[in-house]
Amino acid sequence: xxxxxxxxxxxxxxHTSLLDLGPAAFPIALARSFATTNGTGVGQADxxxxxxRTLTASSSEDLDLAGVLLDAFGVAITFARIKTLLVAADxxxxxxVIVGNATTNxxxxxxxxxxxxxxxxxxxxxxxxxxxVTAYTVTAATADLLRIANSGAGTSVTYTIxxxxxxx
Length: 168
Hints:
Largest sheet: 5 strands, antiparallel
CATH topology: Jelly Rolls
Number of domains: 1
Radius of gyration: 18 Å
Shape: globular
Number of helices: 0
Oligomer: single chain
Distance between the termini: 15 Å
CATH architecture: Sandwich
Mean pLDDT: 96
Strand content: over 45%
Structural class: mainly beta
Order of helices and strands: EEEEEEEEEEEEEE
Number of strands: 14
């Protein structure tokens, strides 16, 4: 099953100020695009996982990136490298979505240490993208669990996740 994908991120805007003799403006523009073709090398990926998931209040889940997740066709996925990690928190969430800090066998090549986390606020998103061959390595049975957690009590959180990666 060939995979082709394009990950794009962009920031654009204008910072303005009214000066004595007229307005001043500073344009802001930065865009990056990561085209991915089928394969396992530079700029390539051959595995994808997408889902919309809900966590009950104060709960967490560990997504096993090596052999447990299923793709859209029901085939088990084993990632060796993650090229794109996107976690988007639903705007209707009250609590934050916390990414990282699996207690054992954590997938941590994208953070500094096993205890590190990223907080994704309601309506916000976390996007990591790497085009190189190394990307973010996954090691089956020792570094393959991606923890996603609900930051608090009282309400559930919903999040969307997209993982694009390579099998080798």
